[in-house]
Amino acid sequence: MIKVTELKKEYKTGKETVQVLKGVDFSVEEGEFVCIIGPSGSGKTTLLHLLGGLDTPTSGSIKLDGVDIALKSEKERTLIRRKDIGLIFQNYQLLPTLTIYENIVFPLHADGKKVPPGKVEELLAAVDLVGYEKRFPNELSGGQQQRVAIARALIHEPSILLADEPTGNLDRQRSSDTLDLLANFHLERKQTIVMVTHDMFAAGYADRIVLFKDGLIEAEVTREDEDYAKFLSRFLA
């Protein structure tokens, strides 16, 4: 579903050039749940933003279902995002003047599409927020707002869900609830998910964990690998 080849990203700060990604090769299969971990500044969030078409690489390719989005214009990337990509952010990014219902359907309305009958109700049930559709974001807890953000990201049934530190602003219980929700979408609906996190507890939900360091992939492990538990304990210690 996703194939990244020799991906590089540089930023210029004054006379200096900062290499954030230094030639990354990375792929995600359809229906896979991949977690990207690493210290601050390792390049993991930059990679996620590139996968989502929010930024363009300095060089290299990013193929989503065979289409290289790195070669597309900003307008074309926006259209691809609306069709194929769901985005979840750490700070929820809900619109405060819109109700929960209006926030969830916003991506469809922005694209000039009608809301499929029963779709919002289905998502509200899935995120355990039935009866909240007329409320506003400031009337909800952080965990509830994140569940609204997840419903919004899934309203257009994206091929891939990209989550950037989705539990970063939540306590452990609300983090667990959010992660359980993502895991259910992955297992029951075969949703493809790529999640960036610094939390190894969150990483333990993934089929595959990819460790980023200094702009490159340092190591990765899958749930089937004998070293999976050892890999987790190494970073949980």
TrEMBL record:
Source superkingdom: Bacteria
Gene Ontology molecular functions: ATP binding
UniProt keyword terms in alphabetical order: ATP-binding, Nucleotide-binding, Transport
Keyword hit for Transport: yes
Statement: the UniProt record of this protein carries the keyword Signal: no
Domain annotation ABC transporter: ranges: 2-236
PANTHER family: IMPORT ATP-BINDING PROTEIN (PTHR24220)
Protein name: ABC transporter ATP-binding protein
